[in-house]
Design goal:
The chain is an all-alpha fold and about 230 residues long. Helix content is about 75%, strand content about 0%.
């Protein structure tokens, strides 16, 4: 797992991908920081993290995940990966953790908005940390879905489209039935921006992440068997 993790992490930061993701997130964060705190003269960061999660992850997740397996398949390096002594589970987890680290770096940088607010008021640290934890769990769930999309196609654009569709379609399905909240990741993030640590939402996001990681492992094992 660790060799794959190191390779993928280097790929993110030896190419423009990692810096593009951080730059886009900072742009989105800064935009919503101005709209939700500066304009409204508020020290509450809940809306900042909610809207950044809703729209920032919609942009960043496909960029982080679309190449993870699709690129290997297109370049013909997938067979080398599958026939290596590393386990499929280790390969999937290594790629997953590398993408999560990029999000973690972004979250650490985003803490500067809390620091900025301390000059104008006394924002509560604990709710902010809960918001960041929820953001990380939500990002992990989105990344796992994006990885699965990348594992079923060799076209990075198709992988990105599938990921975006999976994240955005449930927003509209909720107007049809509340039952679709089960596949709407934002429904499992609703309490975190209020600084509330909900066991139900934590379990929901973690379960979603594990489920799609397992789906990806199953797909890759099947491809290894076929090869």
């Amino acid at each position: 797992m660790w060799p794959v993790f190191k390779k993928e992490l280097k790929t993110y930061f030896l190419s423009p991908i990692g810096y593009i993701c951080i730059g886009i997130f900072l742009l989105v964060f800064s935009t919503f920081f101005y709209m939700t705190t500066i304009q409204s003269i508020s020290i509450d960061l809940g809306y900042l993290y909610f809207y950044t999660a809703q729209y920032g992850l919609l942009i960043i997740t496909p960029i982080l995940t679309m190449r993870l397996f699709a690129e290997e398949r297109k370049n013909g390096t997938e067979q080398l990966l599958l026939t290596s002594p590393r386990s499929i589970t280790g390969i999937v987890l290594g790629k997953f953790l590398a993408a999560v680290i990029v999000i973690l770096i972004i979250l650490i940088i985003s803490f500067m908005y809390y620091v900025i607010l301390t000059f104008f008021g006394e924002p509560n640290l604990v709710p902010t940390l809960i918001m960041m934890l929820g953001f990380l769990l939500l990002a992990m769930a989105a990344i796992s879905a994006g990885m699965f999309a990348s594992s079923i196609t060799e076209n990075q654009i198709i992988s990105a489209i599938i990921t975006i569709a999976f994240l955005i379609v449930p927003w509209f399905l909720l107007s049809i039935s509340d039952g679709f909240s089960l596949i709407n990741l934002m429904s499992s993030y609703s309490k975190f921006p209020a600084g509330i640590l909900s066991t139900t939402e934590v379990v929901s996001l973690v379960s979603f992440t594990i489920m799609f990681l397992l789906f990806t492992i199953i797909v890759m094992r099947r491809r290894k068997t076929v090869k």
